[in-house]
């Protein structure tokens, strides 16, 4: 049957009809809010390339988390900015480091907030790479021990989820083993399983103060051209014990997200990264796009492609306006 017997517009006539048959709905619990924390008190350093996003001291961060929780957002992920950087990134696994301080403060004030922590070395090393440098290259195996130490410190502070973003081979299994041996078998791992060497990370490096001081990260982050390799990366992280797997960035890699949803049964996350966020804001500020409309459309596309969880700087706005 076809037209005129079939009229697809019948169920589009009114907002109520459209709502009744909507296939993809956004909920506040779909969103995880990325937050940047640094030392000090009363600090709110606005990030010029990311409107509405700021580096926050712990006291300000707790206030932001309370507001997010009131908006309906139930999870955050923390990125630390240390006062001191060195070749081995010692601030990443210091028990009194900025991220453990933040985790303890959030959990003391909002115990039901799910707190995830980014586990990587790039914010803490003076060279800006995600691991130990040997002979001018990132040494994969030497880096694993530091990532595990960082994970243990975060778990000890009360983190619910450890999120390794470094893309070292074998790090999920290594971290899982160390967490379990340390008595943290209930702490979940969100694996940045398919993390691409993307140009969309630029504003994040302003926020996290983590650009590499030489070379790039293409030797460990994925080639944007490779889809089959992404499936291998995800499968390996699942085999090593990941509880949630993630595709990053989100919108330029919706095909990867959809393929992962088809192949794998684990909860699936996607990170709407800083460049995606910044470009929508820039277009809206120029009057070229309506920000609310494209925010909702972009987030819907990510969920429609298969994401169960969306890491997005729009989390609070989206929770208030659309969910």
Secondary structure blueprint with pairings:
Blueprint: H1 15-20, E1 31-38, E2 44-46, E3 54-56, H2 58-71, E4 75-81, H3 98-109, E5 114-119, E6 132-134, E7 137-139, H4 140-157, E8 161-164, H5 171-181, E9 188-195, H6 202-208, H7 228-240, E10 244-248, H8 254-263, E11 268-272, H9 274-285, H10 291-305, E12 309-312, H11 315-321
Helix pairs in contact: 2-3, 3-4, 4-5
Describe this structure in words.
Helices cover 39% and strands 18% of the residues. By secondary structure, it is α/β, with parallel strands linked by helices. The radius of gyration is 20 Å and the shape is globular. Strand 4, helix 3 (98-109) and strand 5 (114-119) form a beta-alpha-beta unit. The two termini are 36 Å apart. It has a single domain (25-321), classed as Aldolase class I (TIM Barrel). Helix 2 (58-71) crosses helix 3 (98-109).
CATH architecture descriptor text? Alpha-Beta Barrel
Strands side by side in the biggest sheet? 1-4-5-8-9-10-11-12
Relative strand content? 15-25%
Fill in the CATH topology: TIM Barrel
Name the CATH homologous superfamily: Aldolase class I
- Tally of separate domains: 1
């Amino acid at each position: 049957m076809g037209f005129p017997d079939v009229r697809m517009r019948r169920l589009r006539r009114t907002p109520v009809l459209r709502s009744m048959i909507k296939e993809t709905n956004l909920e506040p619990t779909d969103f995880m809010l990325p937050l940047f924390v640094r030392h000090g008190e009363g600090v709110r350093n606005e990030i010029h390339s990311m409107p509405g996003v700021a580096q926050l001291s712990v006291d300000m961060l707790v206030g932001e988390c309370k507001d997010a929780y009131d908006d309906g957002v139930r999870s955050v992920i923390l990125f630390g900015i240390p006062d001191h950087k060195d070749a081995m990134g010692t601030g990443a696994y210091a028990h009194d480091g900025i991220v453990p301080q933040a985790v303890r403060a959030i959990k003391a004030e909002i115990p039901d907030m799910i707190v995830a922590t980014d586990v990587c070395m790039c914010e803490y090393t003076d060279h800006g790479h995600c691991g130990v440098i040997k002979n001018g290259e990132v040494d994969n195996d030497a880096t694993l021990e530091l990532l595990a130490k960082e994970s243990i410190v975060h778990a000890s502070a009360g983190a619910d989820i450890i999120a390794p973003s470094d893309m070292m081979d074998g790090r999920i299994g290594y971290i899982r083993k160390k967490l379990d041996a340390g008595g943290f078998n209930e702490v979940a791992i969100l694996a940045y399983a398919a993390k691409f060497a993307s140009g969309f990370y630029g504003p994040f490096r302003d926020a996290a103060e983590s650009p590499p001081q030489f070379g790039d990260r293409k030797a460990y982050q994925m080639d944007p051209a490779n889809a089959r390799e992404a499936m291998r990366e995800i499968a390996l992280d699942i085999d090593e014990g990941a509880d949630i797997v993630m595709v990053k960035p989100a919108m330029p890699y919706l095909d990867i997200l959809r393929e992962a949803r088809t192949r794998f049964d684990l909860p699936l996350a996607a990170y709407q990264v800083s460049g995606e966020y910044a470009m929508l804001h820039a277009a809206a500020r120029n009057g070229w796009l309506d920000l609310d409309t494209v925010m909702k459309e972009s987030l819907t596309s990510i969920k429609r492609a298969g994401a169960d969880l969306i890491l997005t700087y729009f989390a609070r706005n989206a929770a208030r306006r659309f969910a």
